User: Fold Geranylgeranyl diphosphate synthase, type I from Halobacterium jilantaiense.
Amino acid sequence: MEYVEARRAAIEDRIAEAVGTVEPTELGDQLEHVVLAGGKRVRPTLTVLVCEAAGGDVWEGGDDADASQQPVLAADGEDALDYAVGIELVHNASLVVDDIIDQSEVRRGSASAWAEYGYGPGLVASDGLLGEAFALFSRDPRAMECVTDSLVELGEGEAIELVDRPENEREYMELARRKTGALFRAAAELGAIAADADGRTVETLGEYAERVGVAFQIRDDVLDATADSEALGKPAGIDEEMDRPSIVRVTDRSPEELNGLAREESDRALAALADLDLPAGEAKDYLEYLAEFVVERDA
Assistant:
């Protein structure tokens, strides 16, 4: 989708700008190592496309802009891009900590932060990412509240995973909602906030994204159990090796059945999206595509 790729390119440029000016240089180098190593950029792309789908004036020309060219920012573009970058920095900060907990030496095909720099600098890098992120959210109290709520949920999810481990499907689904769904929800709500959408639209787009995030996590667990490390770009089988709860381990369902469970969450996400009756356009098309992609992806 050229339309989406053009927006993703704008996000990549803004991410590089955000971490390229960090001081001291050593910290900036660490943040660049973490954030510029790649990734699907699902969350920041979700923020920008939700803003467009919700009526935000993000790019000159909107859906009519030349899809082959990097779009030019319009009135709401600064907020949308800043929030997109911010949520990606928050996500990467959480991955740094995840890799330390899991003792994972590889992330996205490169050395993880702690493996490259050590535990202390890795934790400092995580803190640095959060600091840069909150600087981007600070001009709008609604954005600050949205991200703060998601971090509370994320922290509770991490704690549950470590000390109050789920033992059945219901408990696992609550963990997935907090651990993964919360940041997806925040990404979408931030896009709607940038578009100055009404409360119902913000909430419903958040529900859509949270369910996409849960579907993403279920599929992630299945891939960890069934795919190989080269395809994933990170070690496979880590859930089993670390004795970590996953949907595969807390149920007796087959991978096919679990993929069906992810599909159910995807269908609920699409139903929430349809409930808003957003105007047709490539931004809305991407939101529908994303709900399908997270279930079908192979990495």
